[in-house]
């Protein structure tokens, strides 16, 4: 079915109510590279049995953490083959520190459909509230659908970040594990692009790729650890565009520019001549 923006834009998606535990939080943190050193006391706070600290990026998996099926890209006015789809961008705004366990409800809608000619970009926004109705986080994300453009829609505005014309203030080396995609899929993203070599080949990749949201969470975690002294509550907002693929086992070179109210970040892959991984990365500081 071709994309019909007149139906898609503004469409409300089914409301989702879900819960999570400290064990779910700990598994997510391990999947984005936390507690790599079992003697690092600050790192071990990510996997505390009762009261782990919680990265705001846990919000990207909280609602679907216990999913066991691959996602379907089927919304009002939109029905796309999963093999054509990659993540385009992600933003999480944490309205307050995320609790290590809880129950919440997400209400999401399609806010924009962009026509890039050879591809389409579908942008959604969701607001998550706790059991009392108080906001926990707002999520805004986009998916990039190859071959689904040309339906006559608006191209959309650019969200390019202007980086400082100077060397970064910090450079971080963030390794990934060869089996990291298999670990991350236990957080609810069962897209076979990240685990099935045959599916990955049909999608145009030589082997399964790392989830974009795993790269997103890993970079956020590394920046929090190395630049914000491990204080997850200092992250008010974290946004990024997915500029290229990362294969499990590769190492990310993360450049950080420290500004008064925010950090500007860029991530590339060392093993492939600094191939782009994440761009337009902005971490707004709290406090």
From TrEMBL:
GO biological process annotation, one example: fatty acid beta-oxidation
Location of the Peroxisomal multifunctional enzyme type 2-like N-terminal domain: 18-147
Record InterPro entries: HotDog_dom_sf, MaoC-like_dom, MFE-2_N
One GO MF term attached to the UniProt entry: (3S)-3-hydroxyacyl-CoA dehydrogenase (NAD+) activity
Gene3D superfamilies in UniProt: Hotdog Thioesterase
Chain ranges of the MaoC-like domain: 163-261
Family of the protein in this entry: Belongs to the enoyl-CoA hydratase/isomerase family.
Protein name listed in UniProt: Putative enoyl-CoA hydratase
């Amino acid at each position: 079915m071709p994309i019909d923006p007149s139906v898609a834009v503004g469409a409300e998606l089914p409301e989702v109510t879900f819960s999570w535990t400290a064990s779910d939080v700990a598994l997510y943190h391990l999947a984005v590279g936390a507690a790599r050193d079992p003697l690092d006391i600050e790192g071990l706070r990510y996997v505390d049995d009762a009261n782990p600290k919680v990265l705001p990026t846990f919000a990207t998996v909280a609602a679907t953490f216990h999913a066991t099926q691959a996602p379907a890209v089927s919304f009002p006015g939109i029905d796309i083959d999963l093999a054509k789809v990659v993540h385009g961008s992600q933003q999480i705004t944490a309205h307050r520190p995320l609790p290590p366990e809880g129950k919440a409800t997400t209400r999401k809608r399609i806010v924009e459909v962009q026509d890039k000619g050879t591809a389409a970009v579908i942008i959604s926004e969701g607001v998550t509230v706790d059991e009392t109705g108080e906001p926990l986080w707002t999520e805004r994300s986009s998916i990039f659908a190859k071959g689904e453009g040309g339906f006559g829609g608006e191209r959309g505005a650019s969200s390019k970040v202007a980086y400082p014309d100077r060397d970064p203030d910090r450079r971080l080396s963030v390794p990934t594990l060869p089996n990291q995609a298999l670990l991350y899929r236990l957080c609810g993203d069962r897209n076979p692009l990240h685990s099935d070599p045959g599916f990955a080949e049909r999608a145009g990749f030589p082997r399964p790729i790392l989830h974009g949201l795993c790269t997103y969470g890993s970079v956020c975690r590394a920046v929090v650890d190395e630049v914000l002294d491990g204080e997850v509550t200092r992250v008010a907002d974290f946004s990024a565009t997915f500029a290229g693929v990362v294969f499990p086992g590769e190492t990310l070179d993360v450049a950080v520019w420290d500004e008064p109210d925010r950090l500007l970040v860029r991530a590339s892959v060392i093993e492939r001549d600094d191939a782009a991984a994440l761009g337009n990365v902005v971490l707004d500081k709290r406090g």
